[in-house]
Amino acid sequence: MVLQDKQALVTGASRGIGRAITEGFLLEGAEVWGLGTREPSDLDAWIARTGGKLHWICADLASLDSVEPIIQDQLKAADGFDILVNNAGITKDNLAFRMSLADFQKVLDVNLTAAFLIARTVARDMIRRKSGSIINISSVVGIHGNGGQINYAASKAGLIGLTKSLAQETASRGIRVNAVAPGFIDSDMTRAMPAGAKERMLDHIPLKRPGTPEEVAQAVLFFASDASGYITGQVLAVDGGMFC
Ligand code: NAP
After folding, report:
1. 51-68: per-residue pLDDT in tens?
2. Which residue blocks in 79-237 are alpha helix, DSSP H?
3. Is the CB of 137 under 6 A from ligand 1?
4. If you measure from the C-alpha of residue 172 to the centroid of ligand 1, how many angstroms do you get, rounded to a whole number?
């Protein structure tokens, strides 16, 4: 149980990658505060299955003014977090010349600005405790770009800059900040893609299959645990070799 007695905050915990991260942390002994826009339909059963080690926060991270106060309240209730995973994310795809400013801004707000506000709030408290691990879920498109996803790619590239900068600012206080960059992972987000686009994506993956949320969760668990105690400011791609 590599996360025994640890307390973790995971955003976007209701589905897909965030849910797999939450399940993985719970299995390793952590107490987890999951965040999503609404309660998952099986929340009561899920909490019961964990023996009360799962807590739920309903919050819309697009409402930027409310992000810091909500996280402050949860910090007080939990008496601090050892681990933060900024995982919540959205897409609003379009070609650059057709993209509305509202769609560009909304993706930046949820994927990057909210992550900044949460990381800053949680890191302040981690500094007092002189330890903590922050993991940001970026994407391979944040490194390589992707036509049709200029807003999403910018937000995910921004998360990498945020990760490296915050790592430099907090390392001397015992805090590590890393990013995981998934490739093509089987979740609601990718299930919404047109079949042709999925086929083209699979053609570029040497392992010839999409990744699973659990495979991303394993990389996050590595950064959350002491196994990565001497690693900070790094980006780990979990992409089946897409860009190797
Ligand atoms: P997903 O299945 O669509 O789940 C997204 C999660 O984010 C949900 O829990 C959702 O909560 C939450 N969320 C969305 N908007 C929110 C908001 N405004 N406020 C609070 N929570 C919000 O996505 P996923 O595939 O698991 O992706 C998880 C992360 O991995 C994202 O950051 C994504 O960009 C990244 N990623 C995914 C892939 C992939 O291939 N799937 C690849 C690279 C990176 P609700 O249920 O309440 O809406």
Report:
1. 999 999 999 999 999 999
2. 101-108, 114-129, 141-144, 150-170, 188-191, 195-203, 213-224
3. yes
4. 31
